[in-house]
Specification:
- The protein has 1 helix and 12 strands; from the N terminus they run αββββββββββββ.
- It is mainly beta.
- Strand 8 and strand 9 form a beta hairpin.
- The longest helix is centred in the N-terminal third of the chain and has 21 residues.
- Keywords: Signal.
- InterPro entries: Ricin_B-like_lectins.
- This is Erythema protein SVEP.
- It comes from Simulium guianense.
């Protein structure tokens, strides 16, 4: 019995260490769901600066997000390519802007039992990818997204 409880504690500690290694100030992350990755559309594309999910391929800077700690476990997400920040825009779509000054544009990463994350803001709105080549919108429901360290 003692061995089993020690093993459970070790597994929980390892999971916590993994989470701590991925999420933190100035950490670079990639957010995905299934075979799709979240990226920022570039100027010249339709709906520039909106967050879209596209098929995973080689990792590019428009898919990389730098976390900036704003306190209480919340972060601003800065796109590594453009230097712009994730915000919730018109009609509840996620896009990027020059800065994320509103509390609703600060996000917490809540891990689930499978090691996936719900990305939720200070007013309980969740980042929801909506499928291949669609934009991300806010949702009232918990999401389960894969968050990994950048491959750099």
């Amino acid at each position: 019995m003692h061995f089993l409880s020690s093993l459970v504690v070790l597994i929980i500690a390892a999971f916590g260490a993994t989470t701590a290694d991925i999420i933190g100030n100035n950490k670079c992350i990639v957010i995905s769901t299934g075979d799709l990755v979240l990226h920022e559309r570039k100027p010249g594309q339709e709906y520039p600066y909106y967050l879209y999910t596209v098929p995973k391929d080689k990792e590019y800077n428009d898919q990389r997000w730098i976390l900036e700690d704003v306190g209480d476990g919340f972060y601003k997400l800065k796109n590594k390519h453009s230097g712009r920040y994730v915000v919730i825009g018109t009609f509840d779509y996620f896009l990027t802007a020059g800065d994320a000054v509103r509390a609703m544009d600060h996000f917490k990463f809540v891990a689930d039992a499978e090691g996936k994350y719900d990305i939720v803001n200070k007013i309980n709105q969740h980042l929801e990818p909506r499928g291949k080549n669609y934009s991300a919108k806010k949702s009232g429901s918990v999401q389960h997204l894969t968050v990994q360290a950048c491959s750099e």
